[in-house]
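Hi R.,

Here's the chain you asked about this morning:
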Amino acid sequence: MPTIRTDDGVSLHYEEAGSGTPIVFVHEFGGDHRAWEPQVRHFSRAYRCIAYNARGYPPSDVPEDWKRYSQERARDDIRCVLDGLKIERAHIVGLSMGANATLHFGLTYPQRALSLTFAGGGYGSHPATHAKFQQESRTNAETIQKQGMAHFVATYGVGAARVQYQNKDPRGFDEFMRQFNEHSALGAANTLLGVQSRRPSFYDMARELGGLKVPLLVMTGDEDEPSIEASLFVKRCAPAAALAVLPKSGHGINLEEPALFNQLLESFLHQVAAGRWSPRDPRSAVASVYGPGGKP
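And here is the predicted structure, written out as tokens:
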């Protein structure tokens, strides 16, 4: 079973397929490396695809101390994956929790990223919901600790931004729920306490986002309410960002609409490779109204 050792001594399980320019896929809270299967199968025909499990997600190690989980650590674990596989630069593709880690990676290590894909990200970032999201993360961790994963997944897994997937693809949704139930209760609780309840709001990072020159594709479902506003904010701030909104779609858009997700991502990667993905023209409406910091 292939693993990578992080610089703080945690083993991360990964799988890879294909050859060529590398793509690293970073999963969401409710998923793991298996959730990227529709993308790995598609893109491994032309790229070297790597999907790994975050710390806390077996067969990766599950540190017992929740303080060993953080947004900074999730960011640096991406770097450790690249270092462990001797990859200098890669396309980084993240969903939700993985999207947040991807964007933080790009802000901290832009020289290591060929491109960034931020899909379904930004949950809890909006100033009106930031404190509430942090508290809900702590409450969810307590629920897992007291009542176990099965009880938690049965409620959390069928949320307002998940039912779209359930309605479109019941078979695929059942598989997602089965895999979610297999996650470590300790790892999930620690992820909620260490990462989700402590991560900063992107609304406090407008200046940093305004200086990000790495090609950035922002994707969200039009029914993924917690992600829409934050996605639009990131798009407005980052000068090399573009926004794709998937219609009648919820949170797990890579599984819910794999063909459309792959099409959008593939077009983006081709444009980046061809040198055709440039920062937006300063004469554009977004640039003239919002400026590099995303504010009027």
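One quick note: The first helix runs from residue 37 to 43.

Cheers,
M.
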